[in-house]
Amino acid sequence: MSASAPPQTTERSQAFPAIAWAGLIAGVLDISSAFVIWALRGVGPIRGLQGIATGLFGQDSFNRGLTSAALGLAAHFLIVFVAASLFYAVSRKLRFLTQHAVASGLAYGVAVYVFMTCVVLPLASIKLRHTVPEVMRSMVIVMFLVGLPIALIVRRYSRAPLASQPATNNH
User: Fold this and answer.
1) How far apart are alpha carbons 74 and 48 in whole angstroms?
2) pTM for the whole thing?
């Protein structure tokens, strides 16, 4: 047996909690803002979630009841977990993303917004109102409720442990 084993890193073990918490918190914040906006427009949460599911079922989503609402919610969280996973993976190579988490998170929110608006929603045949106030509101929401929490949580799980020296045997 070797007297000195290589120091163990906690980097890999932090991936799952970092991504899970980042995805969960950003997902809850984002969908909560959607519920508020829908309510202000007179749209209930079930109908709003069915609207998300139109990417899967088209207009028939509104005839599928709670099933399409549940799948809309699942699709929403899948997208946010993918966003959290992508940020985590890239931050392993580009350390400035966690060193400057606030700026990186806000910028990542813009990137997520642009990707969703220009790629995901058109592929799902979801039409949006593209007025300047709508774009600004949506972008600010994604910046502060998706990008920023993801970056801050990933940073939280990316810090090196305080005691990074290997344990010694005093016997």
Assistant:
1) 13
2) 0.85
